[in-house]
Amino acid sequence: MSTLDSTRELFRRDQVWPFLAPAQAEVNVGNQMILYVEDLNLSFDGFKALNNLNLYINDGELRCLIGANGAGKTTLMDVITGKTQCDSGTVFFGQNHNLLNKDEAEIAQLGIGRKFQKPTVFEEQTVFDNLELSLKTDKRVLPTLFSRLTPTQIDRIDEVLKTIGLAKHRFMLAGALSHGQKQWLEIGMLLVAEPRLLLIDEPVAGMTAQETERTAELLTSLAGERTVIVVEHDMEFVRSIARTVTVLHQGSVLAEGTMDQIQSNKDVIEVYLGEEAAAGEQA
Amino acid sequence: MKRLTAWFSEGRSTGKHTLPFVVILLSVTILASAANLLLPADSVFYVSTYTITLLGKYLCYAMLALAVDIIWGYCGILSLGHGAFFALGGYAMGMYLMRQIGDRGVYGNPLLPDFMVFLDWKELPWFWLGMDQFWFAMLMAVLVPGLLAFVFGWLAFRSRVTGVYLSIMTQALTYALLLAFFRNEMGFGGNNGLTDFKEILGFSLQADSTRVALFLITAILLAVVFVVSQKILSSRLGKVVLAIRDSESRSRFIGYRTDRYKVWLFVYSAVIAGIAGALYVPQVGIINPGEFSPINSIEMVIWVAVGGRGTLIGAVIGALLVNYAKTRFTAIMPDAWLFALGAMFVLVTLYLPKGLMGLYGQLKAKRNSVMNKESQA
């Protein structure tokens, strides 16, 4: 665009200058899509962690990501949440929020919650405080200094405490919880923040069968109202929750479909279930 | 304003140590002051003016330790340069006191301090203007350290410098200022610093009553700073600060701009250090570039480590005890003090990671468990 054109653009009377336009807080989910990941590339020292990755997530969907180690699952989450910068490509949250020019805190405030592979909770603080910190509130410095818990917020925390089964431990230090309980607390911290999109990395690692079952129930109940992306290795668990499964391989999408489709997909059998399985089938 | 008063009145039980601490601090200072002013010098309970000044100095150090603890114990930022903020506050007060000397200096120049006459300067440098006004000098005593901390913190925390790198940078900061203030051309008295003060707000600095008043003001301000800090740290902001200490990336992922929290906490801490410095100078009667020396800043960290970081009361107790020990020790064996200080730091790090306050907690836990066993038996 020439200088003249851009000057004209500036004086158009039907438009507001971009820096004067109010920041749109609402996520525009026209087309029923909440996340658009297109042509994403990222390499670490020549190793292509993400290779032309394309992924679209519907609003309210529960999507499982599977793939061998190094397939780029966690890297993808890092890029979406702003932890890692990608080399090229676009990531849009709804139609109007470009996630690539935002930092972690901004992305979290937009309503993208993340649970890490290794449970990270604030160990020196109580379960209740952990949840209080995660509440969906104004998170700037001064409002935080003067903020007080409203009765609605306390009810919300109580509700989540019940959901995650830690109501009895609310004043216990988070560091004293068992591994499974920490996983639950971290899920609780996500819930209390009321995110639009949840990115959950290996939620059932280290959980007992019973806990796993409850997690599956919780995640399926969330879908619809919120969008959930789960990364998991436990195939039983994936089968029990997933409607749509995406298989990643070497930084790009290998296959996408229902669990049954995936399991009968030749490419997937070859790279994911191992060559022996493929060989076994041929025999 | 209304919001502020509401904020202070709610939730009286902020930290179980606050009320006893304030009561003990104020009653001891009032008793000591009364013993100095009202009792005759030959009375058993008479407190000498020397002791009063010494206590006042300790309280300044306690306030400084509080500043270090807020940033280190609560937010995990190990600053090895807090002496810089302390000294800057001190220099602001020193400049005011210099201007108060007027024509009573050795050279009798009504406008220029002695060292400027000695350097053959003809007029006052611009940064000395206005320093004859007490309110302006006090404003500078909090503003200059605060501004320096803001700029430094803004640059460091935004580029996510943490841990030992940050500590080294703070150390470099105070060392650079040390070298700068040593230069005569800087206009801060160079090597000798600022001294030979006569009076503050028209009261003679040599008078017992002035010394006692300074001591009382220091105690009151320490109490105020203690209560305000306790209040800040027990608000949700305090919880965010702890969260940043324990897992900064997690705090970012739940939506907190951790760099901003760190910058503002750093500024708050620097302002407290500046106030402590401004109170320190009229009591000891001198400020020189030595206050910027890295050793001083490291000593502050040791006070906090000995007392127990992460508890405000621990920082105060640590500063008082270590400085009392220093006074006694340097009187008996001056050369051995640094060895004793080093040994103390090593011992505390090895055996008392939570300092004396942690020891108190351990003993209490032990007693409780013994009592539980007895009651079960």
Describe the structure in your own words.
The complex is a heterodimer of chains A (283) and B (377). Chain A is α/β, with parallel strands linked by helices and 283 residues long. Chain A has a single domain (28-282), classed as P-loop containing nucleotide triphosphate hydrolases (Rossmann fold, 3-Layer(aba) Sandwich). Chain A is 37% helix and 22% strand. Chain A contains twelve helices and ten strands. Chain A has a six-stranded mixed beta sheet with strand order 6-7-8-3-9-10, sandwiched between helices. In chain A, strands 2-1-4-5 form a four-stranded antiparallel beta sheet, with helices on one face. In chain A, strand 7, helix 8 and strand 8 (227-231) form a beta-alpha-beta unit. The longest helix of chain A is centred in the middle third of the chain and has 14 residues, at 179-192. The model of chain A has no long low-confidence stretch (mean pLDDT 86). Chain B is mainly α. Chain B has one domain (18-376). Chain B is built from 15 helices and four strands. Chain B is globular. Chain A binds chain B through residues 81, 83, 103-105, 108-109, 113-114, 116, 120-125, 129, 132-134, 139-141, 144-148, 189, 193, and chain B through 3, 7, 10, 232, 235-237, 239-240, 242-243, 245-247, 249-258, 260-261, 264. Chain A: Pfam families: ABC_tran (PF00005), BCA_ABC_TP_C (PF12399). Chain A: Residues 35-275 form the ABC transporter domain. Chain A: Keywords: ATP-binding, Nucleotide-binding, Transport.
- Overall pLDDT score of chain A: 86
The helix tally of chain B amounts to 15
The backbone outline of chain B, from C-alpha atoms, is globular
Shape of chain A: globular
CATH architecture of chain A: 3-Layer(aba) Sandwich
Give Rg of chain A in angstroms: 21 Å
CATH topology of chain A: Rossmann fold
Largest interface: A-B, 30 and 27 residues
Beta content of chain B comes to: under 5%
Q: Helicity level of chain B, as a percent range?
A: over 70%
Strand content of chain A: 15-25%
Give the number of DSSP strands of chain A.
10
